[in-house]
Fold each of these.
Amino acid sequence: MPNVIVVGTQWGDEGKGKVVDVLSRHADAVVRFQGGNNAGHTLVVDGEQLVLHLLPSGILRDNCTCVVGNGVVVDPRVMLDEIRELEGRGRTITPRQLVVSAQAHIIMPYHLALDRLREEAKGAKRIGTTCRGIGPTYEDKVARRGVVICDLLDADRLRSKLEAIVPEKNRMLVDWYGDEPLDVEKMVADYIELGEVLAPFVSDSVGLLHSIQRRAGSILFEGAQGTFLDVDHGTYPFVTSSNTVAGAACAGSGVGPTAIDEVVGIAKAYTTRVGAGAFPTEDLGELGERLRRVGSEFGATTGRPRRCGWFDVPLVRQAARINGLTRIAMTKLDVLSGLASIPVCVAYEGHVDGFPASLDAVTPVYEELPGWSEDISKCRQVSELPADCLRYVAHLEELIGVPVELVSVGPGREDTIVRGDLFTR
Ligand code: IMP
């Protein structure tokens, strides 16, 4: 299998975890390259559900090493909880299976506190972050005052860093937000202890990925969130604090762009979004409610109900350009079964060419496509899909200009229809 980047083409929750799990069958490594435990990737294997927030979705495969790359922000407690949860299910996670970059930045207690306090202070103007400390951690990374994983392996070094950082954070926590101050010594003790447990997994992830390349192995890059949550290309400021697009896979893992063979975009057959921000095709009526109910559209990380709406072609077409998509995997097509007709946004009024700088005030132009009444969740071949269902996929494919090569009709590994060669190689 070639080296493949998988990214979300909408606002996250497109079902990337399942597609990465399907593709990881032939991969030597699965790499997370950005974001942190704001993500929630749900896998269903043999009827058993597993939600991963930080560990790559290949962790259930014995054939591949999972890499948490330098571009990820790591909450060590969450990482240990996920390792323990897997061990509780009878899977021992060894340092051969999990490699964490020594350069990944750490989500510290003051990042968690500030994320929550800032959101509370914003009131109605809040972004709706996951309150996992993601934004404040990336801020400190860019401001060159972050704590990286290798700092957790050396108490003197960690103490000296925190002595420089924490007084300023405490001023903000206490004087500005009226919260409790944090204690440096307690933090050093807690995080050195966490570092000791994580130490066996921490190593030279760049070296590992290059050795896989040298022996012509294949690497799967697992994006988190979606293209329109990207800090540069998304609906700013209602975005996450990292680059979520395919270009970030290289910087966030230390693999050069010339090594990338394919970029797969995951597109849900309709659209959802959690948190605030523009959503041109949002359906606030009964049909939107139906999508939420039938699609179980509740956040895997926060449990929040997701906002639901219709497929937005200009959005996904823009994602195809930004990410350089070579193929699309379309998920949750089964959720649309039973609708008499299905609205699809084919353009934004007044925007014939190009993509608007802001989606705040755009008016979608809809086409109504015929629906299908059959339950498609047991279909395993393209030929088993009802004609109107096939027409729906083919029409979107034509409008986006990228082939749809995998269709997902249910949460399990087996609930998948493969149309292209990438997924069978
Ligand atoms: P943050 O990433 O926690 O800072 O949240 C910023 C925005 O991104 C909020 O609207 C979140 O709901 C959204 N977000 C973050 N991670 C995910 C995800 O994995 N799926 C969907 N939305 C997400």
Amino acid sequence: MSAVARSRAAEVTNRGSQTAIPCLFMRGGTSRGPFFDARLLPDDPGLRNAVLLAVMGSPDLRQIDGIGGAHPLTSKIGLVRPATDDANDLEWTFAQVQPGGEDVDTSSNCGNMLAAVLPFAVETGMITPTGDRTTARVLTRNTGMVAEITVATPADPAGARYVSYEGRARIDGVPGSAAPIEIAFLDTAGSVAGSLLPTGRVRDTLEVPGVGPVDVTLIDNGQPLAIVAAERLGATGYETPAEIDADDALRARVEALRLVCGAAMGLGDVTTRNYPKMTLVAPPRHGGTLSTRSLIPRLCHQSIGVLAAVTAATACVLDGSVAHDVAATVAGTRPAVSVEHPSGEFTVTLARDPGDPRLITRSALLRTARLLMAGDALVPRSLWDPVPTVQEKEPA
Ligand code: NQM
């Protein structure tokens, strides 16, 4: 078992002028960030957010005074605890911190960081594995989404079970191979926007300042997406992320469209929000179903988010959607939809209701994760000092 992680006292301590918070630094899918036992952080949301910003080093763009990775995909945090209801085993909150921003956004999902939640829970003793595979029901508090997650938990020679990170599963966007983590989402429609198709239509034509009329599919099957034909915005849809990030004029058109889409989806002013994710689509080029470039929302994803892939795959099976226009044919009640992205592809297996094939009842996919470092995250005690010193405890 992870001796380092297990042997540490799970409590916040003083360390000179700093407060030390037990923390595991983990990769979840194609994202990475610190994970905490949510019960150890301040109850007050304002103070908790100030602590999280200090941990990451935001709002500095380089996050130089913290452990954030200076990119949205490596500026993510997981806050995990045992479930507080009988239906689930664990619950967690995903927090997105933007390198240059002061917002701690807990309003949407992250299926990549989700992949590290069960390994974290086993590492910290929240979940005790009982067999070679351990399955848990995990509630994402951000949106109420529930997922069934399975990880490999073999036994060492002494019979102690541990999370195995070694294996042969490969996911595009992460070098090498690792143990597979199976994730099945049960009910993801309308995670943030309230319903699968928040405008009630599979396609809308929106008037965008400086761009003109643009056809979009506004959809949320776990992540709010605005799906648009890449060519309508003057792109091919096959650019590298660096090419998209360097194209200020294209990004300005995408952002103008995003603000209009956010309002149309009932999400209000999304200027500082990290959604809707803007998904530029084109016909597949590598034998998959659909080619995507996902802006999250201002920089281009190196691959695609998990629930963004689930949502894009869902759009492929909706007749009349912008994705359906350019996607390869998807057939059957359990289709495997291959979403192409800049570093490869992402396969999502959808379960469609035989009575209504537009209804997705389950989506399953594979991720990997790894514990990268175990220790304490340190923030200035002047910010948060929950541990009175011996002297402070004495009556005056
Ligand atoms: O859509 C990036 C990621 C994500 C989110 C983002 C994600 C998801 O790749 O479920 O995983 O969209 O900001 O980590």
